[in-house]
UniProtKB/TrEMBL annotation:
A single GO molecular function term of this UniProt record: RNA binding
Name of the protein in question: Related to CSN12 - COP9 signalosome (CSN) subunit
PANTHER family membership: PCI DOMAIN-CONTAINING PROTEIN 2, UNCHARACTERIZED PROTEASOME COMPONENT REGION PCI-CONTAINING
Organism phylogeny: Eukaryota, Fungi, Dikarya, Basidiomycota, Ustilaginomycotina
Superkingdom of the organism of origin: Eukaryota
Biased composition regions of type Low complexity, renumbered to the chain: 161-172
């Protein structure tokens, strides 16, 4: 397809307010972009402009700039794809440019196209028709930002194997190793390592403003219908940049805006938004809210979107565990990776097997996965629920007595392999009482735990756990 023919199709789609056709025309990895690339000819910016102006119609502003920048981006991306196989990051093409530089050029050109489009989009009185193009341009930009940053900052090689024997790491050393591994990955979230993604985040913020600030009284044609989709992109980008606190600004703007009810937006937009709201609540230790939001996201996620379901469950399972609700074996069986990660924890939690719970949590690979997801501390907190299960078994074994010697709880800890002295056992009981897992008090002089005759061990999830 010649650039002039491409321009004519853009003119026709714009006149017909056909956002879906425009989205196909500007998809950077689509067949149309590939077809235009084959007949692009001279790729210099002024020559591309001359080729576009040979169209039968009139390519008005800003479409001329958008088309020119888009085709430049496609051209630079094609040059980056000439680096095949294992190549050095310093390898250059015939013009002396590295792959990272070609991807950076492609991102910069696409950024120019997005800037021109957003400037035009913000002026549209009835802009809902342009939302498909709005979406594809932002997706192009974000993908190129990640590709350019990754090429400019390749991940470091894995550390050399040490001479330590397998399994030699202690619990503390294993934790430090897992956290260090994750931190090594997160060092790439600096402003230098994510220069393009941060620029993309700024453009996404402008896109969000262009949607939410629409004053068109005709809601059926409003740009506001793109709000939650771009919010999903913004949140995803903030999470990748480790700038999660910035999400609160977006939530505040949404709560203050006159938007249609969330239920009227496409189901995919609802699921993405409520997933991120649930994750934010989880990270803020608002477990009841996190449970509500993540449960909705999981229940309404497309049945074939297995990867998305797994992402939701990676937060929903720890949330439910803190609340004392266990996932069914049938559910875990559908997600083998989650099953391998959580089944030993869930089994030991239910049995009160604190030693097995601690041992699985101390496994380096398990710790690394939990830390990378930001759920490690919540799983550690669930250890208190595991202790509650153990002490409840003691209470049942004692015929639900209201007075149980502290020594009995100490012996139960020793039975499951937790070696502590009697004072520490008493401290553990006191901690559970203070946080609400047990109802009663400790008669320290007599060495007896006095339990409530009614609900000595309240059902998990029926009370708010006191934070220390």
């Amino acid at each position: 397809m010649r650039p002039a023919h491409f321009a004519d199709q853009v003119i026709q789609a714009e006149k017909a307010n056909d956002g879906h056709q425009l989205a196909q025309l500007f998809a950077i990895g689509g067949p149309i972009s590939h077809a235009v690339l084959l007949e692009l000819g001279d790729p210099r910016p002024n020559k591309i402009l001359l080729s576009l102006r040979k169209c039968a119609g009139y390519l008005a502003s800003p479409w001329e700039e958008i088309c020119q920048s888009h085709l430049l981006s496609v051209y630079f991306l094609s040059l980056s794809n000439t680096f095949h196989g294992a190549y050095s990051s310093d390898a250059t093409d015939s013009e002396g440019k590295t792959r990272a530089e070609r991807l950076a050029d492609s991102f910069d050109a696409m950024n120019t196209a997005v800037t021109a489009f957003l400037r035009h989009f913000s002026t549209l009185q009835a802009g809902r028709w342009a939302l498909p193009l709005f979406r594809i341009l932002l997706l192009n930009l974000r993908w190129l930002a990640i590709q350019a940053d990754t090429a400019a900052n390749p991940p470091p090689p894995p550390p050399a194997a040490t001479s330590a024997r397998p399994g030699a790491l202690s619990g503390g050393a294993a934790t430090s190793s897992a956290v260090a591994a994750v931190n090594a990955q997160e060092t790439r979230t600096s402003s230098t390592a994510n220069k393009r993604l941060e620029e993309c985040a700024r453009q996404l913020n402008k896109a969000f403003t262009a949607c939410i600030a629409d004053r068109n009284p005709d809601m059926a044609e409003s740009r506001k219908w793109g709000t939650y989709e771009v919010v999903g992109m913004v949140f995803k980008t903030y999470f990748k940049l480790k700038s999660i606190s910035l999400c609160k600004n977006i939530l505040r703007a949404i709560s203050a805006a006159a938007l249609p009810p969330l239920e009227e937006f496409p189901r995919a937009h609802q699921v993405t938004f409520r997933y991120y709201v649930g994750v934010l609540a989880f990270l803020g230790e608002e477990y009841a809210k996190a449970d509500t939001e993540l449960t909705f996201a999981f229940a309404n996620c497309h049945c074939r979107a297995t990867r998305n379901q797994e992402l939701i469950l990676s937060y929903l399972i720890p949330t439910r565990l803190v609340l004392g609700v266990m996932p069914t074996p049938a559910l875990l069986a559908r997600f083998p990776r989650l099953s391998a990660l959580y089944t030993p924890l869930l089994t030991s939690f239910a049995r009160g097997d604190v030693q097995t719970f601690d041992a699985h949590l101390a496994t380096p690979e398990v710790e690394k996965r939990l830390v990378s997801r930001g759920v490690f501390l919540s799983i550690e907190r669930a250890r208190e629920g595991c202790l509650r299960s153990l002490f409840r078994r003691v209470w049942i074994a004692k015929d639900r007595a209201t007075r149980i010697p502290v020594d009995d709880f100490w012996r139960a800890l020793a039975f499951v392999g937790v070696r502590v002295d009697k004072e520490e056992a008493e401290w553990l009981v006191a901690g559970l009482v203070y946080k609400g897992y047990m109802k009663g008090y400790i008669a320290h002089e007599r060495g007896i735990v006095v339990l409530s005759a009614k609900e000595a061990f309240p059902k998990l999830g029926s009370f708010t756990v006191v934070s220390t």
